[in-house]
Amino acid sequence: MRMSETPVKQQNTAAFYGQAVLSFGVAVVATTIGIFKLEADTWVRAFLGIAVLYLVTSAFTLAKVIRDRQEAGQIVSRVDQARLEKLLAAHDPFEKL
Length: 97
Hints:
transmembrane helix, membrane, YiaAB, about 75% helix, mainly alpha, YiaA-like, about 100 residues
């Protein structure tokens, strides 16, 4: 790969994106309904609601951290590749020592 070439970014299809959003929505709604229909004291239902909220926000944070680490690794890899290409371009194997 040359420095002037940019790698093709992988993009999810609209169907995959829609399925992920729909799945998330169904899971949140089903859990919310389950908590409200639960035969337990209000404080127990409130605790479960807060626990689900914390779990969802933690999952989003974890996904972002993993994505950021992967993107940082790609940048470092591209910088290393550019340095290697510069060294190879400057090297003349027929140069006398």
